[in-house]
Amino acid sequence: MHQELVKKKKKVAVIGLGYVGLPLALAFAKKYSVIGFDISEPRVAMMRQGLDPSKEVGPEAFEGADIHFTADPADLKSAHFFIVAVPTPVDAARVPNLKPVLSATESVAKALKPGDYVVYESTVYPGCTEEDCLPILEKLSGLKLGENFKLGYSPERINPGDKEHTITKILKIVSGSDEEALEEIARVYGEVITAGIYKASSIKVAEAAKVIENTQRDINISLMNELSIIFDKMGIDTKEVLDAAGTKWNFLKFVPGLVGGHCIGVDPYYLVHKARQIGYEPKVILSGRSINDEMPSHIAQRLVQKLISRNKIPQESKVLVMGVTFKENVADIRNSKVVDLIKELMKYSINVHVVDPHASPNEFAHEYGLTLMDAPSNDYDAVVVAVNHDKYKELTLDYFKSIMNKKPVLLDLKAMYDPGTVRQNGLLYWRL
Questions:
Q1: Torsion-angle region of residue 413: left (phi > 0), alpha (psi -120 to 50) or beta?
Q2: Cβ atoms < 10 Å from Cβ of 348
Q3: At what angle do helices 284-309 and 337-347 cross, to 10 degrees?
Q4: pLDDT value of residue 422
Q5: Which has the closest alpha carbon to 384: 329, 330, 304, 265?
Q6: What is d(CA 381, CA 409) in angstroms, rounded to the nearest whole number?
Q7: 79, 263, 266, 383: which is the annotated catalytic residue?
Q8: Which of 131, 205, 276, 283 could pair covalently with 127 via S-S, beta carbons 3.0-4.6 A apart?
Q9: What fold is seen in the domain 2-204?
Q10: Cα 43 to Cα 328: distance, rounded to the nearest angstrom
Q11: Structure confidence by residue, pLDDT tens digits, 3-15
């Protein structure tokens, strides 16, 4: 398979061209002939023009790429090495929503031929590839794993907004349904991944490795959030505590904050789901999730208390929230916990204005039914800086004072500003 791909006698198909799929497809298209498939016609139209709808890669990434963008599943029939990179969200009950990955599996199965390879990159629970996806591949294709086609799993490690740790510079885990599959998949990825390849012993091991990466981070952040609540009640600055503790060589440098996005706030629920299926109720994982999910409510309560302490009536207050993307310097608004904070503030009948230099107003309105302003107005009783975009780091105290009224309150959720300087300028300052 590897040699035929290199000679362009066979093609790679990447199914799902979002934050994971598009950079991967473009990287492969420097070495192989690639079919980039996405169900969204508008997204495909943009990519044909050399534009990334997610704004993660620039036009230069499209240059010289041997890739055909399509929304027609029939085009997948000319491919032989399939990579599934669709989202794996959770539903409102925080149960894994496998519809995107199972739908993609059906499309691949209808195009599957003897000798083909199917590799999944979507984050799932251990066992999903072989227990949920494989039966669909075999049933719809009429082929048998091992006899007619090979299967693999290679977890994505895309970090949106990170221009240093790009896809080719991150060590890639690969796994296969047998030894031959493992070696061929490793060779195919090895052509484009300069950081190296790690061969996992099984598909389940690779799936588990991916899902615990973000579960570990989630739990560590939840500890920081719990500490911030405790220290706040004690009148101790959490950042100062972490800075002091961080002087020890083996102290893990996590910080408190809102935990959203399509990874850290979602992946743990996939592991929880599988654990419950096998009769175990996770305790630490769910405890961490509970703490992180409660942070928007906690922050809203503290803001209301700060407003009252300044003799401001919450129902008559106007608050500006700066930043709604799930992390700094990206356009991704999926599972944004800042939105949860906004809704918590609205429960107190606070008039909330929202701005973000990276987010799309149309996407924000469509996803959450909320309005994103082009620019802040003025006369705000409080400002909440929720995301540490580079543009926000450059803001001066004079700027904040210019858009705020008397006795203003500044909530700095990312601890970007010096509290001493802020307070000297008459602002009531609070941070996690």
A1: alpha
A2: 16
A3: 50
A4: 83
A5: 304
A6: 6
A7: 263
A8: 131
A9: Rossmann fold (3.40.50)
A10: 23
A11: 999 999 999 999 9
E strand or H helix at 98, and its extent? Answer: none
Q: Helix, strand, or coil here: 413? A: coil
H/E/C letters for each residue in 226-268?
A: HHHHHHHHHCCCHHHHHHHHCCCCCCCCCCCCCCCCCCCCCHH
For the chain, give every residue range classified as CATH 3.40.50.720: 2-204, 216-430
CB 110 within 8 A of CB 73: yes
- Rounded distance, CA 372 to CA 375, Å? 9
- The question of whether 133 is a catalytic residue gets the answer no
CB contact burial 301-322 (16+ within 10 A = b; e otherwise): ebbbebbeeeebebeebbbbbb
Give the global pTM.
Answer: 0.90
pLDDT per residue over 351-395, tens digit each? 999 999 999 999 999 999 999 999 999 999 999 999 999 999 989
Nearest-angstrom CA–CA distance, 428 and 141: 64
Residues 6+ apart with CB under 8 A from 387: 322, 323, 324, 325, 327, 328, 338, 356, 413, 414
In this structure, what are the phi and psi dihedrals at residue 365, rounded to the nearest 5 degrees? -65, -40
CATH fold group of domain 216-430: Rossmann fold (3.40.50)
Long-range contacts from 142-149, C-beta under 8 angstroms, 24+ separation = 143/112, 143/113, 143/114, 145/177, 146/177, 146/178, 148/114, 148/115, 149/112, 149/113, 149/114, 149/115, 149/116, 149/117, 149/118
Tokens of 114: 């003897």
Pairing of strands 172-176, 150-153: antiparallel
